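>> Question from a student workshop board

For tomorrow's exercise we were told to take the sequence and the ligand below, predict the bound structure, and bring the output to class. My setup keeps failing. Could a helper post the expected result so I can at least see what it should look like? The ligand is nicotinamide-adenine-dinucleotide.
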Amino acid sequence: MNPTVTLNEHDGIAILCIDAPPVNALSLAIVARLRDEVRRFAANAQLQALVICAAGRTFVAGADAREFSKPDFTHESFGDLMREVEALDRPVVAALHGTALGAGLELALACHWRVAAPGTRMGLPEVLLGVLAGAGGTQRLPRLVGAELALDLMLSGRQIGADDALKAGLIDAVVSGEPQDVGSSFARTLVERGAKPLRTRDRALPTPGVEEVLSQARAQVNKRAAYPAPQRIVQCVEAAVHLPFEEGMAVESQLFDECRRSSVSGALRHLFFAQREAARLPGIDNSVRPRAITKVGVVGAGTMGGGIAMNFANAGIATVIVENNEVALERGLARIRDNYQITAAKGKLSSQDVETRMGLLQGALSFDALADCDLVIEAVFENLEIKRDVCERLGRICKPGAIIGSNTSTLDIDLLAEASGRPADFLGLHFFSPANVMKLLEVVRGAGTAPDVLVTAMHIARTIGKVPVVSGVCYGFIGNRMLESYLREADFLLMEGASPAQIDRAIEALGLAMGPCRMLDMAGTDVAGKIVLERAKAGSLPADPSYRAVVVRLLESGRHGQKTGAGYYRYEGRTPTDDPGFTTMCEELARQHGIARRSEISDAEIVQRCLYPLINEGACILEEGIAYRGGDVDVVWAQGYGFPDHQGGPLFMADQLGLPHIVQTLQHYGESRGNAFGYWNISALLRGLALEGGRLSEQRAP
Ligand code: NAD
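>> Workshop helper replied:
Here is what the output should look like for this input. Compare the format with yours to find the bug.
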């Protein structure tokens, strides 16, 4: 449906209604139409007041941020519209419902009065997209609610509800009813009492304590130096405090544009849209409905099983946890209770909530307890024979139409699907640890997975607050497959003479939460080392005896990371320190594998050697159709692997660095290091895009 803007008259009151589904986002075209209608109102002296409202489920939920990247985008028309609305000589009332966010709230701020339906949520969340409110929001909000709350809302991007907004002076009334009816009766009262326009721009900003508030805000944003918007939001509020309104508007306008053009905002916008897009399933039309999920089963109450079960209990879904022995079951349930109690101790959960959630979790020692579940997820030991047996039993016990998921990280989903005897009902559900906290869920579609099973998985993922991304079947799916080449190079660099601290520092300087050595020490080098050995046994590794030799040696020498007090580092508590014993180990490995050691390895080489093969692997994943879209790969890394959102994910970062540069660098390492095992083979897709000037992050699988 095409967006419309209509101006109707009812008894001397004009109703300006925006109808642009789904969320009435303001595009440049809608802004132009609004301005025309506002001028029509201005020119018609018969009309006594104006109500601005929106149709459908919400008021204006923001500007259409997709337009920000267009070469001809200018934001001035937004600010001008707000000025014209505010300057009108008769009362203007914004009638809000649903959400009034970003440009939507800015429009409301420019109106002379604001009424909201109960439950309306308001905010200026632009900071989450790396920008700031650029249509007067930074100047008007502090004038209405004071600098402190304005800064809080704009720096966090959080929303506040109607009752709090009323208390804060952001709105004038909370009234139930259809927005246009509520707006007109409010406007009628204003007309009857001869009210004159109350313009936000003319309000004096409350100043007591404001310098202290500003200085605290400056200190807060200095800690977020990688993001340009927060600092500029504070500058805008300083302008609101110290300068006349129009001068403040000029500051805001310039700073908005600086933010919009920044690569950080580009990165955040990319991830925002990629995350939404990731929920769409190409080739499956909207008529495919999800299956109902009212009861869930989890097999295995270990690290992952417990966390997975908590997700469902948190969403109010009854969940059965099945273990194969009493001790493991009791331990698993006790760990879940402990987890909830820790949250309760922080005041984030009431003791009643803890009991309600525990009440939804039922422990069992027999698979029979799974017979009436709509979805069963297995999270038993990562061993093909054990998992095959479990899947085969689930295939026999689960009711017809039940969905069976596996949380395997490394095993072939199609083999497990076959073992279940129900490949259409089977898929991978790869949660990340801690499973009750991490947002990412890789949904792995097997060769036989039915479309409605995939649709159900995406649906239930959102119900439990996850960000689902679909992956095809391959070793490691999207995330761990890319991680493999990164960890491979980290181990080679260590054998060549780099220290764990140098590698981690170089990677963390890009903004990644944790470098590879600290990460493996935390996860356990035993787990990682065993996977390498398993793969070697299965013949699925390159025939290179030095492949990830460091992690294997750490496993064999009992240096299992933080939990044993030593791994890549030595630990005092959780603090890592360099360990001469580790250096000696790397020297020995280098000798054993004929690897030359160097005294100087640059940080630039570390970044290129670790990250560029990972990017190349991402391109292979797209080329093979394992991921649907480049954006999906970036979402996996931002949500599951601590990749900094201000870099937009590895593929977006590659686009920023320039694909020709990535290709040349991969080629360089292939030549200088030799390519006997194909480590430096370059994806045809990546080569092609580098030649054509295309972008990996915008690429769709063939
Ligand atoms: P874990 O060893 O902590 O837990 C496994 C549990 O399964 C144990 O409590 C065990 O008693 C139980 N179990 C084994 N066989 C069983 C059977 N036949 N019936 C019922 N229960 C049985 O392991 P984990 O770390 O929770 O890993 C479980 C799965 O999750 C593995 O497939 C692993 O690859 C995957 N995974 C792990 C992580 C992680 O970071 N730990 C991340 C993603 C995926």
